[in-house]
Amino acid sequence: MLRPHLLLLFSQRSLHTSRTLRWKLRDEYKLTRPELVDRISALLVLQRFDALNNLSFQFSDELLDSVLRKLRLNPNACLGFFRLASKHQNFRPNIKSYCIIVHILSRARMFDETRAHLKELISLCRNNHSAFTIWRELVCVYKEFSFSPTVLDMILKVYAEKGLTKYALHVFDNMGKCGRVPSLRSCNCLLSNLVKNGEHHTAVLLYDQVIRLGIVPDAFTCAIMVNAYCKEGRVGRAAEFFKEMENLGFEPNLVTYNSLINGYVSLGDVEGAVGVFKLMSEKGILKNVVSYNLLIKGYCKQRKMEEAESVLRQMKEDESIIVDERAYGVLLDGYCQVGRMDDAVRIQDEMFKLGLKMNVFICNSLINGYCKTGKINEAEGVVMHMRDWNLKPDSYTYNSLVDGYCREGQTSEAFKLCDKMLEEGINSTVVTYNTLLKGLCHVGAFNDALRLWDLMVKRGVAPDEIGYCTLLDGFIKMKDFDGATRLWKDILARGFNKSRFVFNIMINGLCKMGKMVEAEQVFDKMKELGCTPDEITYRTLSDGYCKVGNVEEAFKVKDLMVRESIFPSIEMYNSLITGVFRSRKLSKVMDLFAEMQTRGLSPNTVTYGALIAGWCSEGMLDKAINLYFDMIGKGFSPNVIIHSKIISSLYRFGRVDEGSLLLEKLVDFDLFPDCGFSLQPCKAGIRNKEIEKIADFLNESAKSASLPNSIVYNIAILGLCKSGKIADAKKFFSALLLRDFTPDNFTFCTLIHATAATGDVNEAFNLRDEMLNRGIVPNIATYNALINGLCKSGNMGRALRLFHKLHLKGLAPDVVTYNILIDGYCKNGDISEAFKLRDKMIAEGIAPSVITYSALINGLRKDGNVEESVQLSALTIKMGVEANLVKNSISIQDDVEYESMQKISMLNGVVHNWYPSSVVSAS
User: Fold this and answer.
1) For a designed S-S bond to 503, which of 326, 439, 526, 754 qualifies (C-beta 3.0 to 4.6 A apart)?
2) How many CB atoms lie within 10 A of CB 181?
3) Cβ-count burial of 742 within 10 angstroms (0-12 exposed, 13-18 middle, 19+ buried)?
């Protein structure tokens, strides 16, 4: 129990405390603004932040600024109050308050907090006015407080780090007015981000300003500038700058060397990249994964895959390097880009053996590679495996597959894949729509392409330059001039008026339609809008004039481009050569050829083709033949068009033997080098898309060489057959039938001879039956091919029966017929039947040839009748048959085939008189 005096004391203290609290609350409520600022400041200095809750006030810009100014020498108190204000539900500090707090914090060297508040300020201010206001307020506070110039440099760096280079440059330009110079660190940051944003030229100009300000660069500056020059395409200047820095005593770092390597690789100058690589070794600079990967990438871009793989092997031997998925990924992607999928899979297997894992980039490379080579099933297989590898397909994965289906003409499958893409939560991008548009245009479904275009726009996907060009090209291929014109106006209205590619597409389309006046108008509009024409623009316009026979205007275009310091390419000279032949301006031909060589341009296959076609059309075959052998001597392979033109001309002027001899050489040449397909390396056979590609190429080339398509097709089929690609020849033949190709005697004779020679006699007879169904009467060359096939398959009885039926078909056997049968009997050891046939042919008035006696002599030797073979050899020599052809090493069957094909060629050549008939004869 409390004593009375203690109870009295307790009650007095309680009453006193209570009265004091009530008086304080009433007093605080009646504080003036200066008193409130003083009271808040006092509590902040004492770090009594909780006591602020007992004060009755509302946050405002004026109150916050007043407290910050009063406590500007106490950064912790200011920061505490600023944080309270920032967290308040109904208040946010303004730009001026932020500028005050960052100056206060910077003066106290609280740089982390300063940087954090600057970033927060910038994130709150997203428009131009606010950004420039920030700078003005920072400068005002700087002048008012007279401290913390570091803030000015920090805002420059923060702007640069966030990629806001426009505002960073404004700060850089105005710091001098405050008597301040940016720090090297901030300058490096700004330079680096300018390069990252693709503003390479601005970076170069800024660097010049940095040097003028007296700021001394360092190794990082050097690396950034080398990268800037390289990204700008001025690799030569980058190399010079590199040397200048070395001369000034700077030691370029690894990043600098890698930037220089990347610059050379970007230009396709692998030798330059290798030079930098060697320099690194000389300077003792250790290479890293990036160095090697860049070099691998360079070789891959040049399609030098063996060299690229050797770099990977060298990389594995470097003990300082750990080879990872990236290196293998670059090489694998290179193989995929050139269509060497077997090698790509081999590299993948090597990765697995090393314990390396697949990533999305490698999977996408494989998928893209398979799709480009028409192996859609394999591409789908990679997608299935991605789940096993815990990888998720992305938009690139699906877009590659969509492109693959479109390339194969399977647009319905491509659209199904787009639906699946949406189910997986991946939205269709403008790339997806562009791919589908291209696919629809490729299969001729242009109306569907237009509907897809409208759908794309309705779905809010903005068309890009590629989409517009695809659609524009579609209108042009449909020869819809009005549609192309409407779209063209829309393209210009959409702001694509600075793209050379767009203008070149339109000019090319108009030239193809022969609308040269309109093409000139687009050309003039291009220059008016400030889009500079390039070599392709001038070449397209010149070629258009050549094709309409106005070679004078074509030469004016050439002269105009030269005045603009744009020099003609070999392609332009090739077009002009064709044009002057077409216009019969023959005196200009050799002038063009000489001018081309003066400019350091060497003739290519197309140049020789244009010259050979021109001289053949003029009947100057000796000039054409000299050029033919000249191009072979220089390592060029005449293509099927050149062969077709020169052979048809030889037959046209009665030089049958030379034409036949040239036909026999077709197998030694790459017939389709200009359409991206070669006979020589092809192992798996021609795919449908390649057949279409070759046929389109042959169509266009035949027109340019003034040749009927049928002549070119027949020689192409012959070339495939002579190369042993019988299945490809049949596929090509079947595809051509769908393109309104009318086969003739030579077409079937070529296929029958090739099929029978492989022993597939039944197929050969099926071809004969198809020939009859088409109303084409087989000639003796056709039946010789069938008899030859029967003999090769050992069916001599059937061969002889067919021989005896020839007269029923209105045909008489020739020397080739007898030689085939005689050779067949000799190889079967039935020498007596062979000699009976020899006697029969003599009785029929057909003189035995060298091949006849060669077969008989070899047959006697094979049968052990050496003495008789010697006697027959002596007899043949006495008869005037050349003895050097009668040797043990001779291949009788090869000679039989040669003579057979030669006879086919000669007979067909004489009957059809080749040129300019649309019916092909011999080839």
Assistant:
1) 526
2) 16
3) middle
Q: Are 148 and 103 in contact (CB under 8 A)?
A: yes
Type of residue found at 548: V
* Integer Cα distance of 611 and 589 in angstroms: 8
CA distance 35 to 43: 12
> Among residues 816, 819, 784, 779, which one has the least CA distance to residue 909?
779
Q: Cβ(519)–Cβ(543) under 8 Å?
A: no
Output the six-digit token pair for 754.
């090739």
Residue 705 CB partners (closer than 8 Å, separation 6+):
609, 613, 641, 644, 645
Closest CA to 585 of 574, 597, 594, 576: 576
The answer to whether the predicted template modeling score (pTM) of the entire model surpasses 0.70 is no
Tokens of 45: 């200095």
Spatial distance between the Cα atoms of 332 and 369, rounded to a whole number of angstroms: 10
Q: What is the 3-state secondary structure (H, E, C) of 181-197?
A: CCCHHHHHHHHHHHHHC
Contact 818, 850 (CB under 8 A): no
Residues in the chain: 923
Query: Structure tokens of 756?
Result: 């029978």
Q: Tokens at residue 25, please?
A: 């609350």
CB within 8 A of 537, min separation 6: which ones? Answer: 500, 503, 504, 507, 523, 526
CA atoms of 523 and 503, how far apart (whole Å): 8
Tell me how far apart the alpha carbons of residues 823 and 830 are, in angstroms, rounded to a whole number: 10
CB of 165 closer than 8 Å to CB of 197: yes
Look-up: residue for tokens 């039938």? 737
Q: Is 638 in contact with 632 (CB distance < 8 Å)?
A: yes
Angle between helices 796-805 and 780-792 (to 10 degrees): 160
Where would I find the beta strands (DSSP E) of 299-427? none
- Is pLDDT larger for residue 644 or for residue 482? 482
Section 164-193 average pLDDT: 89
pLDDT in tens, 787-844: 988 888 888 889 899 998 888 888 889 888 999 999 888 888 888 888 888 888 888 8
Compute the distance between CA of residue 295 and CA of residue 244 in angstroms, rounded to an integer: 24
Q: For 723-814, where are the alpha helices, taking DSSP H only?
A: 726-737, 745-757, 761-773, 780-792, 796-805
Q: How far apart are CA 681 and CA 723, in angstroms?
A: 11
Alpha helices in 705-725 (DSSP H): 709-722
Q: What does the alpha-carbon distance between residue 767 and residue 745 come to, in Å, rounded to a whole number?
A: 11
Tell me the torsion sign for CA atoms 905, 910, 915, 920: negative
pLDDT at 319: 82
Q: For residue 824, give every residue at least 6 positions away whose Cβ sits within 8 Å of its Cβ, in sequence order, or none.
A: 791, 792, 796, 799
Q: How far, in Å, CA of 17 to CA of 417, rounded? A: 81
- Three-state SS for 495? coil
User: Which pair of structure tokens corresponds to residue 540?
Assistant: 């397209």
Least confident of 18-22, 151-155, 357-361, 467-471: 18-22
Give the amino acid at 201: H
Sign of CA dihedral 613, 615, 620, 623: negative
CA–CA separation, 429 and 756 (whole Å): 54
Distance CA 148, CA 117 (A): 15
Q: Helices 621-633 and 605-617 sit at what angle, rounded to 10 degrees?
A: 170
The stretches of 30-176 forming alpha helices (DSSP H) are 33-45, 61-70, 75-87, 95-107, 111-124, 128-145, 150-161, 165-174
Spatial separation of the C-alpha atoms in residues 400 and 383, rounded to whole Å? 11
pLDDT, tens digit, 9 for 90 and up, residues 680-720: 434 444 555 555 656 666 666 555 555 666 777 777 787 77
Burial-class residue 563 by CB neighbours within 10 Å (0-12, 13-18, 19+).
Answer: exposed
